[in-house]
Sequence to fold (164 residues):
Amino acid sequence: MKESILDVLLYLFEHYFTNDASLPPLDDGDSLHNSPLFQELTAAGFSPAEIDKAFDWLDALAEQRPELAPARRGGPTRVFHGPELDKLDLEARGFLLFLEQHGILTPEQRELVLDRAMALDQEQVALDDLKWVVLLALFNQPGSEAAYAWMETQMFLDEPEPVH
Fold:
């Protein structure tokens, strides 16, 4: 059985978000557990607990839409501490810094990505997992289409292109 919030999120991303398909609607009185989407996810091998956690994760992402501000360069450097150091490996932290320094993420978006990465039920978040979190966060941010397109290109190319 698939037992990760990220697995559920990636399933939804692959089957609904990237195909511009909308998630099946819930009736007003209907709960997630009675929906066709819930049945599809359980049939795909996800546990009800992980499905609930994934939708809670998406709800929190939707609630945290930072205002779009121009990318700032030369500002203060983000210092990771405590649980962030334990959960994000060096490569993942370096990647976040890279994205911010090159204007792919604003500082506010970086904090959103960090929040969502920390909310994953994984002991450690490696670079590949963090890239998916960045992609999901950018997908959810109006006005971030160029950053999303660049990030998507980096995810699916064998040799990522440099930022200019």
Q: What stands out?
A: The chain has two domains: 5-63, 82-156. The helical segments are 5-17, 36-43, 48-63, 82-87, 90-101, 107-118, 127-139, 145-156.
